[in-house]
Amino acid sequence: MPGLAISRLGRVDYLATVAAMQQFSAERGPDSTDQLWLCEHAPVFTQGLAGKAEHVLAAGEIPVVQTNRGGQVTYHGPGQVMAYPLIDLQRAGYYVKEYVYRLEEAVIRTLAHWNVTGHRVASAPGIYVRLEDPFSHAALTGPAPDGDPFRGLGKISALGIKVHRHCTYHGLALNVAMDLEPYARINPCGYVGLKTVDLHTIGVQAAPEDVAEVLGQKLGALLSA
């Protein structure tokens, strides 16, 4: 089976990158090598297929782009690592649910490289950390007494994917050292008041390029397994 080619693209335009992913997916054949693109974007809000206009509270000077990935509104900007896997799932031998699990697992393992414990929250794709103690290895015990599944948590990684003819594009974002203010202008992923954090906020001094390197290694191992 063809392998996985990993490309570091640097800071690239969001719309141009989406167009390139769509073109690759449309033109790929049964023997095309799967790709993993790692990059950053200039500030942009992206609205997924389930997105609602009211979740963009005050975009200001930051453009809002409609896109065909799953999910709702999120923010991309410098200091955030974007990972775009272009995988033929039929050839790889696993389904979409397993694919999402592997994406999340790659983020969890990347965070563990810096001794941060990442957590999944049921029915809320992405990875979260404990705000009071992101280095605690204790498992989550469920929603708070008021039913809030995000009580005490901050979102550090968002997922939004598209699968067309068994092939994936779009992907995930991992917050490293970025300006988090734009998240206050939206309801991240459609959740009112959801706290968003990055590695810098929780006390980890890591360069985005170093995090991209580790994330690329983890994704490469999990997606080609």
From TrEMBL:
GO terms for molecular function: ligase activity; lipoyl(octanoyl) transferase activity. GO terms for biological process: protein lipoylation. Pfam families: LplA-B_cat. Its main location: cytoplasm. Keywords: Acyltransferase, Cytoplasm, Ligase, Transferase. Residues 30-225 form the BPL/LPL catalytic domain. InterPro entries: aa-tRNA-synth_II/BPL/LPL, BPL_LPL_catalytic, Octanoyltransferase, Octanoyltransferase_CS. One of its GO terms (cellular component) is cytoplasm. Pathway: Protein modification; protein lipoylation via endogenous pathway; protein N(6)-(lipoyl)lysine from octanoyl-[acyl-carrier-protein]: step 1/2. Substrate binds at residues 69-76, 158-160, 171-173. The active site is at 189 (acyl-thioester intermediate). The record marks 155 as: Lowers pKa of active site Cys. Gene3D superfamilies: Bira Bifunctional Protein, Domain 2. It is found in: Cytoplasm. It catalyses: octanoyl-[ACP] + L-lysyl-[protein] = N(6)-octanoyl-L-lysyl-[protein] + holo-[ACP] + H(+). HAMAP family: LipB. In the reaction, the free carboxyl group of octanoic acid is attached via an amide linkage to the epsilon-amino group of a specific lysine residue of lipoyl domains of lipoate-dependent enzymes. PANTHER family: LIPOYLTRANSFERASE 2, MITOCHONDRIAL-RELATED, OCTANOYLTRANSFERASE. NCBIfam families: lipB (TIGR00214), PRK14342.1 (NF010922). Catalyzes the transfer of endogenously produced octanoic acid from octanoyl-acyl-carrier-protein onto the lipoyl domains of lipoate-dependent enzymes. Lipoyl-ACP can also act as a substrate although octanoyl-ACP is likely to be the physiological substrate. Belongs to the LipB family. This is Octanoyltransferase. It comes from Malikia spinosa.
